[in-house]
Amino acid sequence: MKLLVSLFLALLFYMTAAKLSYRNYKVYKITPNNEAALKELQEWDTEAMEFSKYQFWRGATKVGSEATLMAAPEMQIYFERSLAIMNVDVSIMMEDVQQVIDLENRWARVSEPNPVNWTVYNTLDEINNWLEELAVEFSEKVEILKPGKSQEGRDIVGLKLDFSPNVEKQVVFMEFNIHAREWITSATATWLLDRYLRSEELDVRALAEKYTWYFFPVMNPDGFVYSHEFDRMWRKTRTRYNIHCWGADPNRNWGYQWMNGGASQNPCSDIYAGPEPFSEPSVKVMSQFIESIQKNMVAYLDFHSYSQMLLLPFGHTTEHLANYKDMKEIAEVAMNKLESVHGTQYVIGNVAETIYIATGSSMDWVKGEFNTSIAYTYELRDKGTYGFILPAEQIIPNSEETLKSILEIFKQYEARYPEQNIIGKN
Question: How far is CA 384 from CA 33, 182, 213, 330, in A?
Fold first, then answer.
């Protein structure tokens, strides 16, 4: 009976909810210049809840670092007056968030499905249908994967790509859109897949054929659908935790250093870690799947936005991991290659020292549990003009430079660790 009531309430909510407008919401860039200002900004961030009229897109982490804060019209006078008496530098990143949202996906059709051609951001159904089509077109190389379902009963759909499926090879796992609003990540996933299958470039072909690849373009299907249909800025899953608050942060819900900093126990927080590790069905499903393929897994690449960073484990400590020096040097070469494509510049470093303490992430769980050799998290475009609302016109250039960096990561790794090409060694 309780399950039926919960399903009814969820259905009622979806039937009656109107799409949230961010008309006249502003985004502020705020740089604290002393510890007192930093502490106050962090208190605002801690108090921000999903039903609040403000949201930090990027939190304040240290004196001199830039935070970004989105505020509703009715909150702007309060924040502007407060900031005026704090020791901070302030500028406006966006005057009207909804205006940017309206232009983000301007060529998308609303009356019929959009093809996956990287001129628009696609819905979950459009992405999954495209994956199914690939499995038909490339039936000898591509296998559709549906390891389990989300809280709301959606399939978590992935794809296994293997040019010689009868030969045991090392495994690469690619994770995208674990945070719902980060649409550029799933768009990048489909572009990379298309290139792996269709490119005639020798270096792309060689990389695609050398490994067994697992792509999961949307790791958080419930949140992703909600971000398309109701709230463009939604981040979490859609598990209901109380009368007001829904979802946990699926990148704080993994069982490595869970709730050891940079996460919240408040269900209304955007960084709510869940009541326990692996509480979110999508996270539990994917952890079990990753565990089933980890024996030969040489690389785990996790894609987020925004900030233009390539991050290494771990999020709970600034202490460097066992192969940090090599992995950082590889990352530096790879990011130079990325910059050579369109001039985009990335920052490189450990999660905790580069952005903030953040625990319970998928990358840290993989590195901590399995000591997977290559473990990086991409924070894709941009650096602070559009934030999460990157115009669709940037999908292809973003993906082009990302591919170049991935090619370089594996080229550098293989040159440094030729013995690691032996199956089972990682």
Answer: 19, 14, 32, 26
Give the model confidence (pLDDT) of 139-164 as tens digits: 999 999 999 999 999 999 999 999 99
Phi, psi at 335, each rounded to 5°: -75, -30
Closest CA to 24 of 79, 71, 56: 71
Question: Residue 382 has what pLDDT?
Answer: 95
- CA-CA distance, 77 to 55, in Å (whole number)? 15
Give me the pLDDT at residue 421, please: 61
Q: Where are the beta strands (DSSP E) in 140-205?
A: 142-145, 158-161, 171-176
Q: Are strands 309-312 and 374-380 parallel, antiparallel or unpaired?
A: antiparallel
Q: How far apart are CA 205 and CA 141, in angstroms?
A: 13
Q: Which of 71, 66, 60 is nearest to 27 (CA)?
A: 71
Distances (CA, A) of 380 to 88, 184, 301, 338: 27, 8, 12, 11
Could you give the CA distance from residue 379 to residue 381 in angstroms, rounded to a whole number? Answer: 7
- The strand pair at 374-380 and 297-305 is best described as parallel
Half-sphere exposure of 264 (CA within 13 A, CB side): 19
The position carrying tokens 């473990």 is 375
Q: Are 82 and 28 in contact (CB under 8 A)?
A: no
Nearest to 354 by CA among 309, 322, 320: 309
Tokens 């069982």 found at? 255
Under 8 Å CB-to-CB from 276, ≥6 apart: which residues?
258
Residue type, 271: I
Distances in whole angstroms, Cα of residue 207 to Cα of each of 114, 196, 212, 300, 310: 30, 8, 10, 15, 20
pTM above 0.85, yes or no: yes
Q: Residue 179, Cβ neighbours under 10 Å: how many? A: 24
The secondary structure of residue 149, as a DSSP letter, is: B
Which CA distances in Å does 82 have to 54, 76, 90?
Answer: 14, 10, 11
Residue with tokens 């994956």: 131
**Residue carrying the six token digits 């495209």:** 130
Give the C-alpha separation, 233 to 56, whole Å. Answer: 11
**Would you name the residues annotated as active-site residues?**
379
Whether 170 and 213 have beta carbons less than 8 Å apart is answered as no
> How far is it, in rounded angstroms, from Cα 93 to Cα 90?
9
Q: pLDDT tens digits for 318-358?
A: 988 879 999 999 999 999 999 999 999 999 999 999 988 99
Six-digit token string for 126: 């459009």
The structure tokens listed for 351 are 């999660």
